[in-house]
From TrEMBL:
This is Uncharacterized protein. CDD domains: LGIC_TM_anion. It comes from Cloeon dipterum. The lineage of its organism: Eukaryota, Metazoa, Ecdysozoa, Arthropoda, Hexapoda. It is a multi-pass membrane protein. The chain crosses the membrane at residues 283-300, 341-364, 448-465. Keywords: Cell membrane, Ion channel, Ion transport, Membrane, Signal, Transmembrane, Transmembrane helix, Transport. Its main location: membrane.
Length: 467
């Protein structure tokens, strides 16, 4: 019986070998999804070949990275002193380039005179001791032990009142070692900086707040700090402050001198302009309305004493309460602020309106001039008997008198007394009418004088403090 064998197909063998090798790699290094695809037989030769190449590259890169880390460990263990600067053997100062990336810029408090920021501090320097020919790629490491093992510039923030290092969710620190020995050291900090402000033009003021970075232990002969050449201070995208606008940022170098030596430092100056919108709505417009309301009394009748009195006192209390509310959010400084000038002037206008009503009401209700005659009890003037009241000292006429004395001066020189005029009822009426006319004229002139004076004050105030 003849034997029949299957025809030999050599072209199937490479696919079987590739499939087996890919299955072996995926079984050991691949994902569960890849293994299932191999088992289901849904992959093709192109996918298997690509997967094989990627896995080989990944395995080679992982192995290379392990080799780089081992080389780095050997460099740190071999003659590496983290206490010495990278250029200590050259007797030169190590240059460190600094950069600030500000993630958030908190509102500046005029009471405590400080502000909070959340920033990234990036420092870059050259350390030839970590340069190796077999390190061919940059190593990004965030191991705290490695950070402690290498030399780092010991910098601090001189004008910082409080500082926190970010630990969520891991310590926010990164060390990047480039093949040429360049090191990038980056860490995230939350800081509160002091900002000494001049509030003489508050709330129309401009302020300059600074961030200072300085060397703590290394003098300028050992460590020199420099800003990055381009954009040393970068603000986060969409960063805004509620009360200020950043006009410009000026970065400069400085030097601190102490008895023990000179130290390198950096200063970033933030030129801030206060936004007046909040204070315009909360302070200026309400006080303007209060002052204008106090002028309503000029159009009210003089006889409406309760209404005008209530309006004047109410507006005076309102502007005083507004001034107290504004001052509660400000520090107690010894100089006059712009808001003090405004609130004081508005209070003066309201108070003057109340004084104007007091003067008008006095003139409207002032009695005619009735000065007592300095005559003796029982004296006779032009044949009329005059008597002086013992209790009040005023002149009383006898019951027989039916007519008031004329306005002519009555001489009683023979009795040795001073003579004074005595007005008739018609003269008293004319005097009263003239006083009421004067009171009305004061009201009419106040209707124009107060708005004009307040407008002139506004023009001079805004021109002076906004220039």
């Amino acid at each position: 019986m003849a034997r029949f064998s299957r025809p030999h197909r050599p072209h199937h063998q490479p696919r079987h070998d590739t499939h087996a090798f890919s299955l072996f790699l995926l079984r050991n290094t691949g994902t569960h999804h890849d293994r299932e695809m191999i088992r289901a037989g849904t992959t093709n030769a192109r996918y298997l070949g690509l997967a094989t190449v990627l896995l080989l590259i990944s395995a080679h890169g992982h192995a290379a990275r392990i080799d780089h880390l081992q080389i780095l460990d050997s460099l740190l263990k071999k003659d590496y002193d983290r206490r010495a600067t990278p250029t200590n053997h050259l007797n030169n100062a190590t240059t460190v380039q600094c950069e600030l990336y500000i993630r958030s810029f908190g509102s500046i408090s005029p009471v405590t005179m400080d502000y909070g920021v959340d920033l990234y501090l990036r420092q870059k320097w050259q350390d030839e001791r970590l340069k190796h020919a077999q390190i061919t790629e940059s190593l990004d490491l965030n191991d705290p032990n490695l950070v402690k093992a290498i030399w780092k510039p010991e910098v601090y923030f001189p004008n910082a009142k409080d500082a926190e290092f970010q630990f969520v969710t891991v310590p926010n620190v990164l060390v990047r070692i480039n093949p040429d020995g360049e090191i990038l050291y980056m860490l995230r900090l939350k800081l509160t900086f002091s900002c000494m402000m001049d509030l003489s033009k508050f709330p129309l003021d401009n302020q300059i707040c600074t961030m200072e970075v300085a060397s703590f232990s290394k003098t300028i002969e050992e460590l020199r700090l420099e800003w990055k050449a381009e954009k040393p201070v970068i603000m986060g995208k969409g960063l805004r402050m509620p009360q200020f606008e950043i006009v410009r940022i000026l970065a400069s170098n400085c030097q601190e001198s102490f008895q023990i030596g000179n130290y390198s430092c950096l200063v970033a100056e933030f030129y801030l302009s206060r936004s007046v919108g909040f204070h315009l709505v909360q302070s200026y417009l309400p006080t303007i309305l209060i002052v204008v309301i106090s002028w309503v009394s000029f159009w009210m009748d003089v006889n409406s004493v309760p209404g005008r009195t209530t309006l004047g006192v109410t507006t005076l209390l309102a502007v005083s309460s507004q001034s107290s509310g504004i001052q509660s959010g400000l520090p107690q400084v010894s100089y006059v602020k712009a808001i003090d000038v405004w609130m004081g002037t508005c209070t003066a206008f309201v108070f003057c309106a109340l004084l104007e009503f007091t003067l008008v009401n006095y003139l409207w209700r002032k009695p005619p001039c009735t000065r007592p005659l300095n005559v003796a009890r029982g004296s006779a003037v032009n044949g009329e008997a005059l008597t002086r009241s013992a209790s009040t000292g005023l002149i009383r006429r006898t019951p027989q008198e039916t007519k008031m004395c004329t306005s002519t001066e009555v001489g009683i020189a023979s009795a040795g007394f001073e003579t004074r005029p005595c007005r008739s009822s018609r003269a008293n009426k004319r005097q009263r009418q003239s006083q009421q006319i004067l009171a009305q004229k004061i009201d009419e002139r106040a209707r124009l004088a107060f708005p004009v004076a307040f407008a002139l004050f506004n023009v001079s105030y805004w021109l002076y403090y906004l220039k």
